[in-house]
Amino acid sequence: MSEIVTFVLLLCILIAVLWLVGKMLSLARLQSMLPDVLARALEEKHLMMLRDLHDGLNKQSDRQAEHARADQELIQTSFRNATQHLSGSVETLVKTMDTRLEQISGKVAERLDEGFKKTNETFTNVMTRLATIDEAQKKIDGLTTNVVSLQHLLGDKRSRGAFGEVQLEGLVRNILPPDAYSFQEKLSNGNRVDCLLILPPPTGKVPVDAKFPLENYHRMLDQTLAESDKLAARKQFKLDIKKHIEDISQKYLIRNETSDGAVMFVPAEAVFAEIHAYHSDLVEYAMHQHVWIVSPTTLMAVLNTARAVMKDVQMREQVHIIQSELGKLSVDFKRFDERMKKLSEHIRQANKDVDDVQISSRNISEQFAKIEAVEMQELPEPSEIPNKP
Question: Is residue 343 in a domain?
């Protein structure tokens, strides 16, 4: 496509160039032929005037020779003046034509330059657009290849199952904590489930299956098939979904090991919408079999709800721990109150003892003061003491 557009542009440019060159050649040919045409016209005019003069002379041959010579000189003088005037006019006309031709040639050259410039810009823009179109075509081809690869991926049962498992694993890992799930868990009956959600009681372990039947879904949407084939594919699609629900219920629901219900994960929103919009009986049958049909969007809601429930359970467990610790703290506070009372009693008794000690100290101080205030009497000398018989 780009080569055809380029060829057409080059052809248009070549035609425009040839037309402009033809115009320039026509102007140059006219300029070169103009002096010859004027000289030929001047010669014919001269011959006509000589022929008229000869005829006039033949008619006036009977006139006098002197008068004839005078007339002939007058005629020759007039003829010379006319010839000079005509020559000047021709030269002026030639100069004017040369000037006009030069102006026309300049304008033509200017127009050619502008035309070539615009043509070059247009050609450059076209080439740029063609390059952009080629790049977009490459991206479209790559996208087509990716879409075909995705169709091949979803067309094969194993590849489709792996695709669903990868999508399921990404959703679960992004929402739930690591201890709340397990992938490819083997159950007691020997079956291996794609994902096992480990939720608090009474829910328990919830099995999740990521495989889904899609062959007949593609067939019932194939526009190349007849209406009867589409109708048959729709019926078979419904049977496939029903059988898949039964398989999940029989394989993954085990009494006293898993929860009462399992999850059928449909990684395609279109299939999920098809089931809920046109096959409500399948949804009711799945609920009867304790199987919940979810899409990536609804599975996110389920996982967020499960996370909220787990968080609420953890908070309740923490509340019990807080209540237990508060009970222990109450016992310790009672013991602290009793010891505080005893300490207060000891402090009160010590305060009373301190008061008693202060009273004793004041009494002793008063006794010392009295002792210091007593005046000692002078004792007599030994010689003055009388001798008794």
Answer: no
Q: For 64, phi and psi rounded to 5 degrees?
A: -70, 145
Do residues 171 and 128 share a domain?
no
Among 280, 310, 340, where does a domain finish? 310
- The CATH number that applies at residue 265 is 3.40.1350
CA dihedral sign of residues 337, 338, 343, 346: positive
Instruction: Determine the pLDDT at residue 116.
Output: 66
d(CA 132, CA 126): 10
User: By the 8 A CB rule, do 202 and 216 touch?
Assistant: no
Residue 254 near residue 185, CB atoms below 8 Å: no
Identify each DSSP E strand in the chain by its residue range: 181-186, 192-198, 205-209, 262-265, 291-294
Q: Inter-axis angle of helices 280-288 and 227-252, to 10 degrees?
A: 10
User: What is the reported pLDDT for 50?
Assistant: 66
* Phi and psi, residue 183, nearest 5°: -100, 145
Flag whether 326 is in a domain: no
Count of C-beta atoms within a 10 Å radius of residue 164: 22
Q: Which of 279, 310, 341 corresponds to the end of one domain?
A: 310
Q: Partners of 292 in the beta sheet? A: 263
Q: What is the torsional sign of CA 233, 235, 240, 241?
A: positive
The boundaries of the domain holding residue 230 are 157-310
Considering the domain boundaries, does residue 362 fall inside one?
no
Consecutive 10-residue averages of pLDDT for the chain (389 residues): 58 64 58 58 64 64 61 71 70 73 72 72 74 72 51 48 77 90 90 90 88 80 84 88 91 90 89 87 92 91 87 78 77 80 81 79 79 58 50
| Residues 175 and 127 both lie in one domain | no
Q: Where are the alpha helices (DSSP H) in 260-295?
A: 269-278, 280-288
Strand partners, 299: none
pLDDT of the residue at 220: 83
Q: Which residues contact 46 (CB under 8 A, 6 or more apart)?
A: 83
Radius of gyration of the chain (CA): 63
Residues 209, 282, single domain; the answer is yes
Is residue 63 one of the residues assigned to a domain? no
